[in-house]
Amino acid sequence: MFKIILLITLIIINLVSAFISHPITTHKLHNNHQHSSIHIMSSTTTQQNGDGKFHFAIDRGGTFTDVHCKLPNGTELVSKLLSVDPANYDDAPTEGIRRLLDEHDPNGKTYPRGEKVNTSLIGSIRMGTTVATNALLEREGERMGLVITKGFGDLLKIGDQTRSDM
User: Fold this and answer.
1) Number of structural domains found in the chain
2) Which structural domain, as residue segments, surrounds residue 141?
3) pTM
4) How does pLDDT run along the chain (166 residues), one tens digit per residue?
5) Are 54 and 123 in contact (CB under 8 A)?
6) Torsion over CA: 22, 27, 31, 34 (sign)
7) Is residue 164 part of a domain?
């Protein structure tokens, strides 16, 4: 189990480090009253050489969703919001993207909740999640079956994430 947790940690570190070229040094903690749900945390750092597009790296966990964003001007932001908040939004990653676009659109365009988002300013979205892996590790979730075709029999062997040779 330790090896699986280590592997998951390395994947998350790779996802974030591929996006961040230096540590975030300035932290601003605030409660954002402009949204009816809790905006847990924001961090900001400035970097030169933005490419004019928003770039997102998102880690959706069981409790919180972390959204790292590189703004069109190169400034990097990290925000955290609740992964499940049905009274305020259906999907945390989408809400995180919407909030950052709404707050930082270089043309001042607004992005109201519930409307389609103009994606022309989005250069990339990278997303990882530990929700399914956590359910497997904790032996939680619904019972299910697997139907496979010829040639995929090894899925039954590796499907439980047991790695005795690691």
Assistant:
1) 1
2) 2-158
3) 0.60
4) 555 554 555 555 554 444 443 333 323 333 333 443 444 445 555 556 889 999 999 999 989 999 999 999 999 999 999 999 999 999 999 999 999 999 999 999 999 998 988 899 999 999 998 877 777 788 887 887 778 888 877 776 666 666 666 5
5) yes
6) negative
7) no
